[in-house]
Protein: Nuclear transport factor 2 family protein
Organism: Streptomyces rubiginosohelvolus
Amino acid sequence: MTAEPRDVAVAYFDAWRNKRFDDLRMLLSDGTFSYSGPLAEIDNADECRDTLARLGGVMTGLVVERSFVSDADVVTFFTVHTSVAPPNKVANWLHVEDGRITSIRAVYDAREMASI
């Protein structure tokens, strides 16, 4: 794959927003992959896909507010809406290599999301 990091990030959020988790999984690296956030540390793409799919079960919306690209990194600020918690602001840092996401770092207030 040779997709630009910005294009990969757009496709990632589009797949997540539209609950197309198999499409989302295809954007995650089969090799080295990691996710780090307030509620989880994940070291494989399949587990990340499954975790986002569980959130998708209660997610009612995802609004991307702004993205910034620097070389292979894309930082996106977005709000996730769910049926079980107030809207939550998230800062998300994707690292992309060879058209696939190799790491995701997320920062958000986990207090309301801990039950999901």
Summary: The chain has one domain: 5-108. The longest strand covers residues 59-70.
